[in-house]
Amino acid sequence: MTFQAKVIYEFEAVGEGELTVRVGDIVTVTNTDVGQGWLFGVGVDGKEGIVPEAYVERIPDASYVPSRQTSKTDTWDDEWDSDEEDKSNETSTIQVVNPSAAEVRKVSPDTGSRQGSVEPGFSLGKLTNAFGKSDTVSDYLMGMTETAATVAKEAIFINEPNHGYFQWETHSEPFTCIIGAPKKSSKFGGMKSFIAYQVTPSFSNIQVSRRYKHFDWLHERLVGKFGMIIAIPPLPEKQVTGRFEEELIEHRRVQLQSFANRICRHPVLSNSEVWKHFLIQTDEKKWTQGKRKAEADPNVGISFLTTIQAPFVNAEMENILDEKIVNFSKNMTKMESAVKNMKSVANEQMSKYNVHSKDYTEIGKAFSQLGSAMQEEAPCLMNIGACYQEMSGMWDTQGTKDWEPVQHLMHDYKGLAGGWQGVLGLYGNMKEKQKEILKADGIEKEKDSAVARVNIHRIGVEAERTLFGEELGNDMTHISQMFLVEQINLHRQLADRLEKLYYDCWPGAAGEEQLLPNPQTLATSDAEPGLTDWD
Prior knowledge:
By secondary structure, the chain is α+β, with helices and mostly antiparallel strands. The chain is about 45% helix and about 10% strand. The strands form 3 sheets. A 5-stranded antiparallel β-sheet has the order 4-3-2-1-5, with no helix packed on it. Strands 8, 9, 10 and 11 form a 4-stranded antiparallel β-sheet that branches. Strand 2 and strand 3 form a beta hairpin.
């Protein structure tokens, strides 16, 4: 659906396909399904490109009724099944019922910073406005945002087990969630088909059926509630170029499993009411009730920060944490670029495997053709041809063993990096607002509140940074080990098969001296034992 939007933050294009816009420009948006917080549109100069969704504000159209845009290729991602739910005129933005809670639209960036990868779903208010009570962040810092929970069930605790080490507190036993084999179903007498994934949490072992649209709804709720301080794991991309339907469905299942694993491992997200509702509810009526309750949750966006209980820190610790967060922000910028590059390399290498498979097939055919012309003089040629055609199959399946897992992990961290941009952008904005409040001729209570509430966000960001660092280290170690093992196995199998071919063609000692290792290689192997010695 095409609509017009007004630019509220200046954006300078730095990447291919991006569109430079200035504050006040009118952009005609022609595609909202770009993903990762981007919109595709036409600028005032007639040029086309993508702009961050958070940098523009839709111009209201009285004839327009908001609806969730669906990719034409996404045939199983249709409207909600319940007729009762259809009447609620859902939108992809999160509606706020409590006027004291934060206004929820799309994440706004820190002034002057580039937030192209920001996850949509929450709002910081109009951060570029002049300092005043109408600013959502300022209202929060000065204590005007209602504290909806303190030590009640909504409260989120951060502890400090060691000096300067902050972590989210865990109150329940860890659990896992299995995303099972997808099933194709239909409705309306078979006129509309969809895919349902079987979801089974370990704490109940009761299977529930969820479609991609349900995961999409869940993701919006998590971003809207927690996205100001927690980087929410991404969902699978809407469509994967060049994949057949069966392969796409399995590709999605693997990435949905990764999404579920990360939610289950997170101390806050795993215990959230909306996640538990998603995992356990099988009754349609109760599902609808829980869904509406989640959508009416007042503790979303900046109001969620009022539920966090954090330890007191002095000025010295504030400076230490600030330095850590600043360094982390710099590293995140580097990591985001590196992750995108590695994902591109993984895609390219998987394509090359297909080329290798075809090459080996052609090599095998060439040797077989040559052998058929001289069967008596050189019978080994037919064996070589058969061997190479057989080895071509190894390349067919290799991509799923080494590069595809790398591809999946880079997808996760690309999305997480985008979420972190929003968290860090808010943190920078809060610090600027805190300075304004402390300099202004306000009452001391508001100034004390600003110091305390910035510290809550500061400590929350640090707790999340600590958890993220642990996950990152574990993930990169695991994927590196797995990648190398699969690479070793592939080349070992190829070498073993070629060596067997050699002795099958020339049994006995004939030519054996040609397979003896180079003395220099043996010296290296003796000096560095391990993977160089396959036996």
